[in-house]
Amino acid sequence: MLHSSRLVLRALEPADINATYLGWLNDKEVSRYLETRFLPQTLEALQSYWEAHRDDPASPWFAICLAADGRHIGNIKLGPIHWLHRRADLSLFIGERACWGKGYASEAIALVRDWAFYELDLQKLNAGIYAGNIGSRRAFEKCGFELEGTLRQEVVSAGQRLDIWRLGLPCTHWRLEV
User: Fold this and answer.
1) What gap in Å lies between CA 112 and CA 116, rounded to an integer?
2) What is the rounded average pLDDT of the residues 66-75?
3) How far from 133 is each of 2, 33, 70, 105, 125, CA to CA, in Å?
4) CATH number for 118
5) How confident is the model at residue 131 (pLDDT cuts 50, 70, 90)?
């Protein structure tokens, strides 16, 4: 479990796989930049995905919860971790729209970033962000990630090809900021 004054990051639990979570994935605005958006999601599919991935040590997956009341507002995942290269991808979403724009994403990123570098001894973190997802990009940049490249016309969204921004943060840069 990771925590700050406003957030608690904990393992996703069976009780989290519910109608609220399902609603996030089927909400076109919430899932606009998620790969899950291509198919209508069901509770059964969500449960199966969770069961298949919940114990994967190379991809720790956390529920982002408000410290004040324990409410689950989104998820953050580190992984897959490439132990040989000591690097991993970091991805997240805030499903509760009322929690958008309040700094919860950057706070969750910072918690996992610090844990990954300090506890896991990873040496590099990466993030792939759909071009146009300015909020996500700002959250990562606020945590020290920098644009390392743009993958041109990498994905399809709403019938259009979009770029992917690749952001990264080497551990040596994190150590300079801490």
Assistant:
1) 6
2) 96
3) 26, 7, 27, 13, 19
4) 3.40.630.30
5) very high
More confident residue, 21 or 11: 11
151-156, long-range: CB < 8 A, 24+ apart: 155/130
Domain total in the chain: 1
Report the C-alpha gap between 35 and 106 in whole angstroms: 21
User: Domain limits at 149?
Assistant: 2-177
Predicted TM-score (pTM) of the model is 0.92
Confidence of residue 177 (pLDDT cuts 50, 70, 90): low
Judge if the upstream peptide bond of residue 57 is cis by omega within 30 degrees of 0: no
Exposure class string for 131-158: b at 16+ Cβ within 10 A, else e? bebeebbebbbebbbeeeeeeeeeeeee
Pairing between β-strand 7-11 and β-strand 2-3 as defined by DSSP bridges: antiparallel
